[in-house]
Write a structure and sequence with these properties.
The longest helix is centred in the middle third of the chain and has 14 residues. Strands 2-1-3-4-5-11 form a six-stranded parallel sheet, sandwiched between helices. It has a five-stranded mixed sheet with strand order 7-8-6-9-10, with helices on one face. Helix 3 runs parallel beside helix 4 and helix 5 runs parallel beside helix 6. The chain has two domains: 134 residues, Rossmann fold (3-Layer(aba) Sandwich), CATH 3.40.50; 106 residues, Dihydrodipicolinate Reductase, domain 2 (2-Layer Sandwich). By secondary structure, it is an alpha/beta fold. The chain has seven helices and eleven strands. Strand 3, helix 3 and strand 4 form a beta-alpha-beta unit. The structure holds nicotinamide-adenine-dinucleotide. Nicotinamide-adenine-dinucleotide (NAD) binds next to helix 1 and helix 3.
Length: 250
């Protein structure tokens, strides 16, 4: 039986994860953790650890908290699965070092849905054949970080397959700052839409002379993330390695 503590247990994702852990015959819910005070809920990982034992923490909190939560777990030999987005590249590298130094499993996935992972894989494949591509990610308006972790990971994967996008574009002027979106990886522009009605969607648009190719994924229910989280749980129990991306174990 895998003993699991869910951090961010009262949030949208946390609630879904708690139900999944309770329903799964191989997992046991050891602790619920959230900064919102509530009955049966610990207010920090530290507090939970003093009262109960668990093999792994699953964290779906917020960008401002995740780095400290992850460092605390890895420094105390507790495996962690990170669904929370908003970690910087430098923070991810630091967590990789901590995971290796402490020989403690750390699994980061900006997106736990298999459909989104396939969308990213398809984008990586297409990146070899197109020199122009942009990403549009669309989320509900309560999402705190932009661009999404999925968009960043997709751009990273595409930039490894092709180092120079947007070739042939003319010199551009932004009359309104930000119109062309963010551009951190190989000239792949990322545009973030935040409006009610969406949960999590992403389009990757490729273009070349006379043609466009659009790959799109939509998450319509948070249940889509649960099988990926169970896969990650099984992986961290068996291995003490550092993983960034569900694609690494599919
Ligand atoms: N990896 C994925 O597949 C995936 C999917 C959906 C959402 N997300 C990410 O998961 C995160 C949570 O999303 P959400 O929609 O559930 O948000 P949410 O705001 O509904 O829930 C976050 C919860 O975390 C709690 N919290 C904040 N700081 C905390 C801390 N230090 N310790 C304990 N609890 C804390 C909040 O009180 C809240 O209950 C976001 O970063 C989001 O982008 C990832």
């Amino acid at each position: 039986m895998i003993k699991v503590a869910v951090c961010g247990a009262l949030g949208k994702m946390g609630k879904e994860v708690v139900n999944t852990i309770l329903e799964n015959p191989d997992t046991e819910l050891a602790a619920k953790i959230d900064i919102i005070p509530a009955e049966d809920v610990f207010t920090s990982i530290d507090e939970a650890l003093k009262k109960c034992k668990f093999d792994v923490v699953i964290d779906f909190t917020q960008p401002a908290s995740i780095f400290e939560n992850a460092k605390y777990c890895l420094n105390n030999g507790i495996k962690i699965i990170i669904g929370t987005t908003g970690l910087s590249e430098q923070q991810i590298n630091e967590l990789e070092n901590l995971s290796k130094t402490n020989n403690t499993g750390c699994f980061i996935a900006p997106n736990f849905s298999t459909g989104a992972v396939l969308m990213m894989k398809c984008a990586e494949l297409c990146a070899k054949y197109f020199d122009n591509a942009e990403i549009i990610e669309l989320h509900h308006n309560q999402k705190k970080d932009a661009p999404s972790g999925t968009a960043i990971k997709t751009a990273l994967m595409m930039s490894k397959a092709n180092e120079n996008f947007s070739t042939g574009n003319c010199a551009e002027t932004e009359t309104i700052k930000g119109s062309r979106g963010g551009n951190a990886y190989s000239n792949i522009h990322i545009h973030s839409v935040r409006i009610p009605g969406f949960m999590a969607s992403q389009e990757v648009i490729f273009g070349s002379m006379g043609q466009t190719l659009t790959i799109r994924h939509d998450s319509t229910d948070r249940k889509c993330y649960m099988p990926g989280i169970i896969l990650a749980l099984k992986h961290v129990l068996e291995y003490n390695d550092f993983i960034y991306g569900l694609d690494k174990i599919l």
